[in-house]
Amino acid sequence: MEMRERITTALKEAMKSKDQERLSTLRLINAAIKDREIAMRGTADGALVGDAEVLAIMGKMVKQRQESARAYEEGGRLELAEKELREVSVIEEFLPRQLSADEVETAVTAAIAKVGAASIRDMGRVMAELKGKYTGQMDFGTVGPMIKDRLG
Question: Which of 69, 92, 115 is the last residue of a domain?
């Protein structure tokens, strides 16, 4: 089932069960996807957002909420931090399983070998290879420095 369909189905189920917290999080996901579609209307890609783009949007949403939860905890606002973390758990239901550190290492090594990367100039090609295969499964913010260390 396509990601959009899964989200829509979950949205309908949340409405039926009157689960307000889950419903509001699913509506936030839908709104983020629609915002992305609106932004893409003028481009050559058209207005359809594919599964890879939906995964990227949701990955970004998770990261934002985790940062907000940390900020709330530091500020002593535990109830708000807990709300953010509950939203993260709803969003993560739709994301693929995150790769372990060993799996990330293996994927980076394989991507470097596949594109024949020899210097830091090849970093973009390695990242493109990884994003093509592992969108939503790894944090590319931590993978970037790892690739730099290997190629630098």
Answer: 92
85: CB partners within 8 A, 6+ apart: 65, 66, 69
Predicted confidence (pLDDT) per residue in 76-106, tens digit: 999 999 999 999 999 989 988 888 888 988 9
pLDDT tens for 103-113 read 988 999 999 89
pTM: 0.73
72 and 26, same structural domain?
Answer: yes
List, for residues 116-149, the tens digit of each pLDDT value.
888 889 888 999 888 888 877 888 888 888 888 8
Q: Are 131 and 147 in contact (CB under 8 A)?
A: no
Structure tokens at 51: 């599964």
CA angle, residues 135, 70, 127, in degrees to nearest 5 = 20
Place of tokens 């969108």: 135
- Encoded tokens for 50: 């594919």
- 14 lies in the same domain as 86: yes
Q: Residue 144 belongs to what domain range?
A: 101-151
**119 with 151: CB under 8 angstroms?**
yes
